[in-house]
Amino acid sequence: MFQDEGTSSITSSPLQFFTMMSLSPKLGSPYPWLRELKSEERGLYLIHLLLTCANHVAVGSLDRANLALDQISHLASPDGDTMQRIAAYFAEALADRILKTWPGLYKAFNSTKIPMVSEEILVKKLFFEMFPFLKVVFVLTNQAIVEAMEGEKMIHIIDLNANETAQWLALLQVLSVRPEGPPHLRITGVHPQKEILDQMARRLTNEAEKLDIPFQFNSVISRLEDLDMEKLRVKTGEALAINSVLQLHNLLGYDNEALQKPSPSAAKNVNGVQYSRYPHLNQTTLSELLDKDMVNGCSPSPDSVSSSALSQANATKIDSFLNGLWSLTPKVMVVTEQDSNHNGTTVMERLLEALHTYAAIFDCLESNMSRTSLERLKLEKMLFGEEIKNIIACEGAERKERHEKHENWSQRFDVAGFRQVPLSYYGMLQARSLLQGYGCGGYRMKEENGCVMICWQDRPLFSVSAWRCCK
């Protein structure tokens, strides 16, 4: 069936049928010809099927979407290779979106589900322990705070998502050996769960006592969107720092959705997804597969970033929140966000962008963890799978994972009265040393537009930036 390497793959593999096939029951099940696909060809066809399915979902052709999902089910697998695994979670997300078109059915299917908050916390802790991304964030953030607070005797830190004690344990160690002596430190932790805050308070208080640092921990039990700034109790004479790690994008779900108009691309039918050329398939990672422009006319474009920024121009919730933070006059505010564009107005925009982002993340998992690892399965299903589902299947306030690029956040902070400041050079040296210690060449860090991008290979995954009030 397959010709020599020099022959066009269009005429030498089942890929030649992609643009000519109609998804119909006539293909039969379990589609025996699919088993003849090589790994790279199977990956490309899965991308084709996901885009085809998303197009059908977008125009309400649910019967055709169902047929596409049926084919995906014979190729995707949560314990297969990288593309099989990612396709399984995107297919689940598309199916969940379809199910939501019948609210009664959707509610009946989910009525007995018990939210496992403890499991969510454990899987996030697992991600922190297994990978260096958040460790790098904490190193950069702590060093920015230390340098901004040099000489200050009363320091107040507001943690907008107080669920990881490790960051502040490390900061206590640094402050304990300050040449001018340790300051009086107050940390205000914001989190919706009292037990998480209580646990953090105990550990930090015990450590501060050992290091002989005057310390106070204030708990604010609240979701970020419901936060009352008065409860943060910022006092005169305190030098204030604000820390936000992967939180602010959640507030974009409370913007006026009526202001967001679907782009013309939402009305594209399946014929809009074209595969006009297939270079020789020798990619070793899903990221490379996507970055080779396999999907002609469907790769994410810079325009989608700017359109997302425009759609958020009248974002009232995030604007008022940032204005509230500005009114507290912090000496430094360090913000970490996913550096992706998952806040497009159409499901097709979000699916294309998310494929690229999670391709890099799943490649990272493939390079660092065994396919049979239970920890890997938990991360993929309970953390990244849930993120994918929220990005693809949800709308309105229910859609929390509204990740945007740093340039979008930069515009918002500027409007709110913040000025970006460079991150610590010493902090970046520490962070690079930490990444090198992992012994994996895929982790990278680069400066871009005044912030630090933490990458897997060449794909930025997280941005870290520091800001000051501009009076």
From TrEMBL:
InterPro entries: TF_GRAS. Keywords: Nucleus, Transcription, Transcription regulation. GO terms for cellular component: nucleus. It comes from the Eukaryota. Residues 124-189 are annotated as: VHIID. It is found in: Nucleus. Residues 393-468 are annotated as: SAW. Residues 199-231 are annotated as: Leucine repeat II (LRII). Its main location: nucleus. A motif (VHIID) lies at residues 155-159. The keyword Iron-sulfur does not apply. A motif (LXXLL motif) lies at residues 248-252. The keyword Transcription applies. Belongs to the GRAS family. This is Scarecrow-like protein 3 isoform X1. It comes from Cucumis melo var. makuwa (Oriental melon). The lineage of its organism: Eukaryota, Viridiplantae, Streptophyta, Embryophyta, Tracheophyta.
